[in-house]
Amino acid sequence: MPHAIRLHEITKSYGEFKAVDRFSLEVERGTVFGLLGPNGAGKTTLIKILTTLMRPTHGDAFVEEFSILTAGKSVRRVIGVVPQENNLDRYLTARENLALHGRLHGLRPAAYNRRIDELLEMTGLTSRQNDFPDTFSGGMQRRLVVARALVHEPRVLFLDEPTTGLDPQSRRALWEYVRGLRRNMTVFLTTHYMDEADALCDRIMIMDHGVCLADGTAAELKDAFSRAHVYQVEFRRDSDRYEGMLAGLSFVRSVERSGSSFQITLSDEESIKPLMDCLGGADIRRICLKEPSLEEVFISLTGEKLRE
Amino acid sequence: MFKGAFSIWGRDMMVLRRSIFSELVAVIAYPLTLYLAFGFGLKGYISEVNGVPYPLFIAPGLISMTAINAAFDESSWSMWFHRRVQRTIEEYRVTPITVYDIVIGKIFSGFSQGAVKGSVVFLVILLLTPFRIDYGHLPVYLMCIAISSMTFSCLGTICGTVIDKPENIGRVQSVVIVPLIFMAGIFFPLSSYPASIRPFIELLPTTAVFEGARDALLQGSVPAPYLLNLIATAAVSFLVAVYTFDRKMAE
Fold first, then answer.
1. B12/B15 Cα distance (integer angstroms)
2. Any CB–CB contact under 8 A between A213 and chain B?
3. Rounded distance, CA A214 to CA B42, Å?
4. Coil, strand or helix at A80
5. How far apart are the CA of B99 and the nearest CA of chain A, in angstroms?
């Protein structure tokens, strides 16, 4: 399948510091690609490079086969961008914001007015089209920014943390729009929310310190990082006695208790047999291997330490 | 070519149209106060300067001052606001237009605001003054206002591009723009300056703006040194504004 986005050894340096380091990537057309990473991982830098807002120090990238270095105008013609912050024009109405975007893309009123009607309908903003964005809720402003990015019918849509700060209803509404878009375009998404990546993305890449740490579907990542040594055990009775016993076992690395349920981390996969031997006579309601969540995969790759 | 600049200019003019009345009231109040205070208040003490009635002597400068102040204000604050607060410059930059479209659009918006507001103050002063001017001189005078507005729109664009803190734009206005305006002989003839200082004052772009405007309105022509100064300053400031914005966007 042809690639909508190709990055070839992209590096962005600020003196000695490398925000992105020899980063290569290919994103297939018609897919939703999710880029995850903690603050300062280099996600926004990559989006800025791909949308021609920033030039890389080394390397080149191609969007729909147009080089960001030599064909920036052509790149911008085929992309739509939803930035991290709502950069709506507060002195223009919702409709005027969309119309200005259409004009900046060289569209004629006959073309962009029809499209704006469709987008306002799709985002549920038709009745507010003549109001100023300052009077909108955060979710409505976000929907308007998404609508604006779609006025010129881009082939690649960049969404930089599109649901940050939104309430759960607005987040899910936005997810629905994005799901609907994947039929017609490639979506490149960055997010902090693992559930968002899990729900939306066909492919996920986790990056930190400017380099790729893991790449695959959500299921592949979970599978690759699942280790058969974290178990959940629930006892019917005598939970207190078992807590002490489990904590004293040499092959048990940690025990976390929640009521009568325990999450037991063993030192290795082979420790399950001695554990079962020790629990032989226990009245167990449930025992199961714990599957890692995408968040746990993310934390295991990027660490728990807070970033500045 | 420059369709993007035209779209941005069109956006700014639409926003201006919406608030034209309050904008004009605010813009007219200041020069009109000066005109009434100096032109009429001092009329009894200074009846004429170089054979010109004092209210008529200061009127062309006040009109030009309105135009260049409006051009500088619009360009600097608008550029700063769109770059730092609304971040709409970033939205413009992910469309197929170029950075030249953006900066030229913004410069023309400042120029247009200056021209519109200067013209309105001109009309108001014309209604208030007991004398009449030769309307044949108007085209040269309007050309002077246009070039001056362009220059100060470019200077405003440079400030709005390089200055990140809003209070510093205010400081530039009070430390650079206002002294340049008041030193340039709006209210008094340049002959008042000591002979040793005068050559420097005559080189100021604001001197060319105000002296040139006065000569244009009263005599129908701009002295060649002032005209050259006006054109050269406008051209240089335009190039510097475009270059500065281009560099800033490349950072």
1. 5
2. no
3. 79
4. strand
5. 11
Give the 3-state secondary structure of A204-269.
EEEEECCEEEEEECHHHHHHHHCCCCEEEEEECCCHHHHHHHHHCCCCEEEEEEECCEEEEEECCH
* Helix pair B3-18, A94-104: axis angle to 10 deg: 160
pLDDT band of A103, cuts 50, 70, 90: very high
pLDDT in tens, A77-98: 999 999 988 999 999 999 999 9
- Tell how strand A186-191 and strand A230-235 pair up: unpaired
Using the Cβ of A150 and the Cβ atoms of chain B, whether some distance falls under 8 Å is answered with no
CA distances from A289 to A13, A56, A221, A239 (A): 43, 45, 17, 19
Q: Which residue stretches of chain B have pLDDT < 70? A: 1, 130-131
ipTM above 0.95, yes or no: no
Instruction: List residues bridging with A247 in a β-sheet.
Output: none
Strands (E), chain B: 48-49, 52-53
Residue A111 has pLDDT above 80, yes or no: yes
**Could you give the CA distance from residue A82 to residue A159 in angstroms, rounded to a whole number?**
5
Is the pLDDT at A228 greater than 60? The verdict is no
Beta bridge partners of B62: none
Please count the CA atoms within 13 angstroms of the CA of A20 that sit on its side-chain side: 28
How high is the pLDDT of residue A306?
54
Contacts of B84 (CB under 8 A, 6+ apart): B164
Q: Which residues of B touch A87 (CB under 8 A)?
A: 86-88, 90-91
Q: Which two tokens stand for residue A105?
A: 């893309």
Instruction: Name, in order, each residue with C-beta under 8 angstroms of B56's C-beta and a sequence gap of 6 or more.
Output: B129, B131, B133, B218
> What is the band of A27 on the pLDDT scale with cuts at 50, 70, 90?
very high
CB proximity A95 to B under 8 Å: no
A–B interface: beta-carbon pairs under 8 A: 58
What's the rounded mean pLDDT across residues A35-39?
88
**DSSP character at residue B153:** H
Cβ neighbours for B141, distance < 8 A, ≥ 6 positions apart: B60, B213, B216, B217
What is the value of pTM for the model shown? 0.82
The more confident residue out of B89 and A195 is: B89
User: Across the interface, do B90 and A83 touch by the CB < 8 Å criterion?
Assistant: yes
In this complex, the residue of B10, B86, B250 whose CB is nearest that of residue A89 is B86
**Residue A55: count of CB within 10 angstroms of its CB:** 12
* Confidence label for A279 from pLDDT (cuts 50, 70 and 90): confident
Sheet of A3-14: strand order equals A17-28, A3-14, A58-63, A66-67
Bridge partner list, A62? A6, A67
Provide the token pair at A194.
Answer: 């693992």
Residue B59: the pLDDT is 86
Output the six-digit token pair for B244.
Answer: 């500065």
Give the Cα separation of A48 and A287 in Å (integer).
Answer: 48
